[in-house]
Amino acid sequence: MRGSYSAASWLALATAMAAFSSPALAQQAPTRVILEGQTGSAGDVVVIYGDRDSNDPGAYSVIGEQQIAETAANNPAEILNQIPGVNIQMNSGQELLVAIRSPVLPAGAGQGSFLILENGIPTRAPAFGNVNALFEVHHETAEAIEVVRGPGSVRYGSNAVHGLMNFIDPEPGAQQGQTLTLSANSLQRFRADATANFKTGDVANWVGLSLMDDGGWRDASGVEQQKLTVRSKFGGETWNAVATLAAINLNQETAGFIQGPKAYRNLDVSKTNPNPEAYRDAWAARANVRFETNIGDGQLTVTPFAITQRMIFIQHFLPDQSTEKNGHDSLGLNARYDFGPDNFRWAVGADVQYADGFLKEIQTRPSFGAIIGGSPTFPRGIHYDYEVETMTTALYAELDWEFVKDWSLLAGVRGETHNYDYVTHKAPGTTGRFRVAPSREDDFDFVTPKLGLTYSGFDNLILYANYARGARAPQTSDQYRLQNLQTIQKLDVENIDSYEAGARGKLGGVDFDVALYSMKKRHFFFRDSDGLNVPDGATDHVGIEASLAGEIGEFGGGKFLWNGNVAWSDQTYAFTRNVVAAAEDIFDGDQIDTAPEWLADAGIGWQSQQFSLFLTGEYVGKYFTNAANTATYGGHTLAHLRASWRFSPDFEAFGIIRNLTDQRYADRADFASGADRYFPGEPINLTVGVRVRR
């Protein structure tokens, strides 16, 4: 491994373990606080600071604390893929590509299509997205994970195009006690997760720490990762505040993709690493303070926040395998005021965020490739070296109006502006494959409306219809990281219009959620078959999602439980594009590559006070791996088995067998430069661990 755990990391673990064993803390009896809000599949109930109501129109899912603990996910994909319409694909280590009612979107297409939040605050500034940004969240110790499927721009702004994920930490003081979870995996993976929720005087505190040492199952690969979150709650007679500090560090030896038709079926080939020199080193820190106070008949919430992030990695997925260094620092403020009677509730808000970021790309390998404009396609030296300052401002308003008994209207609108000040430190011009734009300023603005209707007149049943627009301003890489065939131009704002109808509730003891949607996306930023990030795409998306959960009955002092979800979609290109590689032209009506028609997840198990046993399965259907619809991946079905034994209220042992039938499959498949490429999925593996609560 390139890196190792620092003394500070082990000191943090020692501190958490000391807190766990502290007599003063051990005397405090743990409490279980049930919060109002949406019920997740594991039966946990959570709320997001009054931000969302269970009667809201539109599809969303909540994964609760119990389900998070039982899954013991090594990466966010292992838990998020249990949600209908969500397809998180793994590359190597902690590299994850996201899909929510969409294809798997890499590069520029994916960097601004999904919004990632922690406690309602974005983990990155809008213009500096990262397709792999899920490694920056602390999912291991979260109390809940909320996923909104479909546009969320009215409430959350730019980048919530296809949906958003909100990772919610426990409230300090709400459930006092400590937990320590230790686990080991047969693929050389070791984890330690510790939490402590306690009070010191009038201040409530929560601390979460996660450490991972993954030796890697492929050659010359592995991950070392550390995450720390600290929260404190305090206040006065008329106000209260919650301060949060989160930090992550990642040192990864990256295994590249393997090539060749169905190469993933050969375990010996899957274990190889064609790019043993590849790595990814990254760290990030975030701080915010949420202030709340009552003013009149409403509540004012003000949250100032700060973000800093740095990353350096080798682009093993490109022929030049250049080294990229990027980062940004950001300051922001979110303000929101909720007021009015219960049947006529307003929410108005304002968001502002400043960011200063940079990107530098260097090729250390000798120049190679065909001559373009007098230069090799991939010239040695600096390809890009620029800085960008951005300013984002937004105003929004939402009305939740019960205009007739059982009938509610949710209407909202948001106006948002983005200003960019770009400065290049490399001379403008074209060198081989790379084009450097001259320094300039750009600005973008857009309006995103939302209109929803709900009916709650039936027992345990809510019906809804919803229209929402999602939008995103161009990412800095969309505008300033150009290639030789691209023109220097002002780009359009990407937008998507979504129409949705659905129902959720309980019938005959079965919890259910069904949603139908149709979406049209225009000014789509994507990477075409020439390898160019282009802004003129258009796509159409229709689909249906359904999830069910219930009890079969009681037996042997426990109960049998089951759950399942399925998602069908038809996702097509709505334009024609000719590229240099004519065999990979895009035609209107073609299926979008990396968009499976079917996704499904199911589980059945038995649970008592002391013991649980669950068998789960996941299905990823066939999908095209190129835009021309000439190459395919056949899909896969995986089974997993997990069991736990609670020896006492404070001590639990668990085991998880992932890929129970030892299937040979690909976590990610695509087709580029005339070759099938795969990131192979893990073979059968066993995780054993213990969890101690005080």
Helices and strands in order:
Elements: H1 7-21, H2 23-26, E1 38-39, E2 45-46, E3 59-63, H3 65-71, H4 77-80, E4 89-90, E5 96-97, H5 107-111, E6 114-118, E7 121-122, E8 144-149, H6 153-156, E9 163-168, E10 177-185, E11 189-200, E12 203-214, E13 222-235, E14 239-253, E15 258-259, H7 267-271, E16 279-295, E17 298-314, E18 323-339, E19 344-363, E20 368-372, E21 375-378, E22 381-404, E23 407-424, E24 429-431, E25 434-436, E26 440-458, E27 461-472, H8 476-480, E28 482-483, E29 494-507, E30 510-527, E31 533-555, E32 558-573, E33 598-607, E34 611-620, E35 623-624, E36 632-633, E37 636-648, E38 651-658, E39 666-672, E40 675-680, E41 685-693
Parallel strand pairs: 6-9
Antiparallel strand pairs: 1-2, 3-8, 4-5, 6-7, 8-9, 10-11, 10-41, 11-12, 12-13, 13-14, 14-16, 15-40, 16-17, 17-18, 18-19, 19-22, 20-21, 22-23, 23-26, 24-25, 25-28, 26-27, 27-29, 29-30, 30-31, 31-32, 32-33, 33-34, 34-37, 35-36, 37-38, 38-41, 39-40
The number of distinct β-strands equals 41
Average pLDDT:
89
The major beta sheet can be summarized as: 22 strands, antiparallel, barrel
Structural class: mainly beta
| CATH class call | Mainly Beta
User: Any idea what the shape is?
Assistant: globular
Percentage of residues in helical conformation = under 10%
Q: What is the CATH H-level superfamily?
A: TonB-dependent receptor, beta-barrel domain
Strand content: over 45%
